Amino acid sequence: MIQVAQLNFREMEHQICLLGINQTISGLLYAGGMDAPEDGGVLAYGYVDTEGGFTFEILAPAKVEGDKIIPLPGVPDMMVKLHKEQANECSIRLGPVVDRTPYERKIAVINEAYAPSEDVAAIRSVDLIDDSRHPDYPDDILVIFLKDDYKPEGCWVRSMEVEEGRCIGKLLNEPDQDYGVHENDLIPFDIVKEGEDYFCISRF
Predict the structure, then answer these.
(1) Residue 53 CA, distance from chain mean position
(2) What is the DSSP annotation of 96-164?
(3) 3-state secondary structure of 132
(4) Which of 8, 167, 172, 191 could form an SS bridge with 156, CB 3.0 to 4.6 Å?
(5) Handedness of CA 61, 29, 2, 8 (dihedral sign)
(6) What's the domain range around 23?
(7) Residues 109 and 157 placed together within one structural domain of the fold
(8) Which of 104, 108, 187, 186 is closest to 145 using CA atoms?
(9) Which pLDDT value is given to residue 24?
(10) First and final CA of the chain: distance in angstroms?
(11) What are the backbone dihedrals phi and psi of residue 159, each rounded to the nearest 5 degrees, phi first?
């Protein structure tokens, strides 16, 4: 059985999937007034929240009978969020055959509320740098800082915009070395090919 942690965010984004139940999911169902099925999981919709990382919206618990998935009553007006980092060890089945109609309004609300800016969407679409992305926060990118007489240092930068062909992001951690920039500063960076690999580089 495939686990959430084994998949790239692109495979789960804007997909309804069936997640196995762990303790966190069981607690969320209980808080939402839903029971966790003994033999089944939850139907969930995957999307990217720039601040919160890859997120699943729990739509409803579901029973599994052989190859058949039977959705159980959910709470249509309540948002029940599950961050990917809370579900990495859960089993996942992509694209289960279920009627999407009961969930279309909630999915539309999510897609509108978390629609990225044009620039963020452009950076998010670059799969060449997926190895540099945080596994749970797709818009957070490991950028290598380079400066003469300094050791290369990797820092996390959150994608924000594109300006004159360069990516711009917010520095998420304080560098160990003095580059003249600090946490929360905006940092320009470039996508650079080295051999067969691509890296994100910021030169000072």
Answers:
(1) 4
(2) -----GGGHHHHHHHHHHTPPPHHHHHHHT-GGGGGGB-SS-TTEEEEEEE-TTS--EEEEEEEEEEET
(3) helix
(4) 172
(5) positive
(6) 4-113
(7) no
(8) 187
(9) 95
(10) 46
(11) -55, 135
Q: Hey, what are 134's tokens?
A: 């945080």
Read off the tokens for 112.
Answer: 């509108």
Is residue 131 classed as helix, strand or coil in its secondary structure?
helix
Report pLDDT for 166: 95
- Other C-beta atoms lying within 10 Å of the C-beta of residue 148: 6
Does this model's pTM top 0.85?
yes
Name which of 1, 94, 102, 30 is nearest 56 in CA terms: 94
Q: Which two tokens stand for residue 49?
A: 């929240």
**CB neighbours of 186 closer than 8 A, spacing ≥ 6?**
160, 168, 169, 170, 171
Which two tokens mark 32? 């939402």
Query: What pLDDT shows up at residue 76?
Result: 64
pLDDT at position 34: 82
How many alpha carbons lie under 13 Å from residue 80 in its C-beta half-sphere?
24
pLDDT at 35: 81
Interatomic CA distance for residues 133 and 136, integer angstroms: 8
Those residues of the chain that have pLDDT short of 50 are none
77 vs 90: CA distance, rounded Å = 25
Q: Are 89 and 19 contained in the same domain?
A: yes
DSSP 3-state of 23:
helix
Do 92 and 128 belong together in one domain?
no
